[in-house]
Design a protein that fits this description.
The chain has about 625 residues and is of the alpha/beta class. The protein is built from 29 helices and 14 strands. It binds zinc ion.
Length: about 625
């Protein structure tokens, strides 16, 4: 059997050009060799595994090479280079200050420093983890560092620059090593895989590079680990399994559940994750990062910040289109809050589940508010006329809903002064219901501002008001006795259509609202149901939604009648229990469901005396 050499050693760079991700540093070092302006002391700072010692060794080899090439790299052939490559050069001395940090250790070093090199021009002293030296050792070292013999070059390396005393800092030329970028690490891994005749999927290497967190050495160790696990064929699946990394697909799936307000699906996905042995905390932090990644995909300027493989990147871009910016903002907040509260929580699973349910609820709420914000003109008029009661504006904080309920402020819009009045939560009503009332009371201005900024560039679905229809279809508009516009569909036929055709047309209508993903997904999950011939209805969750959809009914009917070529088709909205309703629940109901699923939840709730405010 071949002697196995770990990749981190086998593929340790042996010249400047092969150092990964530290271009500016290697360039500066080469430049100093080129101009023959060597400092006597260098300080290499930066995280572990990013190439500090490697660069120090290459530098030591190169300044001792008797035949430096035109690229200012060591020749690897001269006597000095050969000695370096065989690790038996006497021109390089490495001291690990972590284990040799006493005054005596430094005195030994100072004695050695006086002896000039026999071969080559420089004796290079690499002192690793130099911040570990005791203060006495530091002081003993200071004088030598101040006036070293001409043939000596010190290279001090540290992961903790702030622990280095200023007198040392001021005597060194300082190089700050950066974490290595994920792409650079992945490229290097691709190179190593190729050299080792290992076929590796791009996305698999990307995962390893991410896991390495900027350290090349760690990346290569992980790579070795994966190779010993899956042999000469590294796949994405085997890699995430081996590294215990959650598949991106899980996050994409659960996001789909969120944006369609599919509560049960989100809980099932989470359950699946737990069953696979992942910590709930790991999942929720991953989820927050996932939302962050989706958010940066919303802006072409920040897409570059996304550090994932090619295939997964495409997926992110595609999914980002389905999520609104405000959804992502709120979802990040909720996920992050759950993460922050995780340690303190007595029932961690419930904490995460409640967070998931809250995220599911974002789109539902947004839909209600969204439609509210765009009341048609006629409604506004009647409101203005009957301005007997002052409108109340509730400022509901988007993230911490429970708090918002009890701490919201009421502003009277009749007067210009704003006053804060605490609102007592109504104890008899479930929290969910109360929230709904608040939403109903929300005035337009708050949402309208948000709406404005979001929809300035893209057309909003409510852009179609009755006025607009009247303008665009003047030919078929008439006015009834009370001045209300009615649309005349006499030019249409009475074609037959079946459920399939209606379903197709309905989806087409939903698609015509794709500029508003919330409305789009709402319509897709609420299809018309047949009551009688040409009489269809849609059951919605509550009166607010019903009222808002009805405000658009004329537009909706026009679309459907025209597409079906049937002037007799009628559609109405009613409130009731639907499939969707079953998942549209108050917090109390959600809890009851959870207790049904797992009676332990009730015990926990009772023991801890937990309750909704
Ligand atoms: Zn050489």
């Amino acid at each position: 059997m071949d002697d196995f050499i770990v990749s981190a050693r086998k593929y340790r760079p042996d010249n400047f050009v092969s150092v990964v991700g530290q271009d500016s540093i290697t360039k500066t070092l080469k430049n100093s060799i080129k101009t023959n302006q060597l400092a006597q002391a260098y300080l290499f700072c930066g995280p572990r595994g990013v190439g500090k010692t490697t660069c120090a060794r290459i530098f030591a080899k190169t300044i001792n090479c008797s035949n430096v090439n035109s690229e200012f790299e060591a020749c690897n052939e001269c006597e000095s280079c050969v000695a370096f490559n065989k690790l038996r050069s006497l021109n390089i001395h490495e001291l690990d200050a972590a284990s040799n940090n006493s005054v005596d250790d430094i005195r030994n070093l100072i004695d050695q420093v006086r002896i000039p090199p026999q071969l080559g021009s420089y004796s290079v002293y690499i002192i690793d983890e130099v911040h570990m030296l005791s203060s006495a050792a530091f002081n003993a070292f200071l004088k030598t560092l101040e006036e070293p013999p001409k043939h000596v070059v010190f290279i001090l390396a540290t992961t903790e620059k702030h622990k280095i005393i200023p007198t040392i800092l001021s005597r060194c030329q300082i190089f700050d090593f950066n974490r290595i970028g994920v792409d650079d690490i992945r490229d290097r891994l691709e190179f190593v895989a190729q050299k080792e005749n290992i076929s590796a999927e791009h996305d698999a290497l990307q995962i390893i590079a991410q896991k390495a967190d900027g350290a090349m050495r760690d990346a290569l160790s992980i790579f070795d680990q994966i190779v010993s696990f899956s042999g000469k064929d590294i796949t994405y699946q085997s890699t995430i399994k081996n590294l215990n990394v959650l598949d991106y697909e899980i996050y994409f799936d659960i996001t789909n559940a969120f944006i369609t307000a599919n509560y049960s699906q989100s809980l099932l996905i989470f359950d699946d994750v737990i069953r696979k042995g992942f910590e709930a905390n790991y999942f929720i932090t991953g989820l927050a990062s996932h939302f962050r990644d989706l958010l940066i995909c919303k802006d072409p300027g920040t897409v570059e910040l996304l550090e994932v493989g090619k295939k997964i990147k495409e997926k992110y871009l595609e999914h980002a289109q389905k999520c609104s910016v405000s959804f992502l903002f709120q979802a990040i907040g909720i996920a992050n809050n759950a993460d922050l509260n995780y340690k303190a929580s007595q029932n961690k699973r419930l904490l995460v589940e409640l967070a998931l349910l809250s995220i599911c609820n974002i789109e539902n709420e947004a839909l209600i508010n969204n439609i509210e914000a765009e009341k048609p003109v006629e409604n506004k008029k009647t409101e203005q006329k009957s301005e007997v009661k002052p409108e109340h504006k509730f400022e509901v904080k988007p993230v911490v809903k429970e708090k918002a309920v009890s701490q919201k402020t009421v502003t009277s819009e009749d007067t210009t002064t704003q006053m804060s009045v605490p609102v007592e939560p109504v104890a008899e009503k479930p929290v969910g219901e109360e929230l709904e009332n608040i939403k109903a009371a929300n005035t337009q201005s708050e949402r309208a501002t948000e709406q404005k900024s979001v929809s300035e560039n893209k057309p909003s679905y409510i852009g179609v008001s009755i006025k607009d229809i009247a303008k665009s279809t003047e030919k078929i508009i008439e006015t009834d006795s009370s001045g209300e516009p009615i649309i005349n569909y006499e030019h249409l036929g009475t074609d037959d259509y079946d459920e399939e055709k209606l379903k197709y047309v309905w989806e087409k209508y939903a698609e015509s609202k794709s500029a508003d993903p919330r409305l789009n997904s709402f319509l897709k999950t609420h299809a018309p149901v047949k009551d009688a011939d040409n009489q269809y209805s849609i059951t919605v969750e509550n009166n607010q939604i019903k009222a808002k959809l009805e405000a658009e009914l004329m537009d909706t009917l026009k679309f459907l009648k025209t597409e079906l070529n049937n002037s007799e088709f009628e559609l109405s909205y009613k409130v009731g229990t639907t499939e969707q309703e079953k998942t549209f629940k108050s917090d109390q109901e959600k809890l009851e469901d959870m207790i049904k699923q797992n009676p332990e939840v009730k015990n926990l709730r009772d023991q801890l005396n937990l309750d909704f405010e």
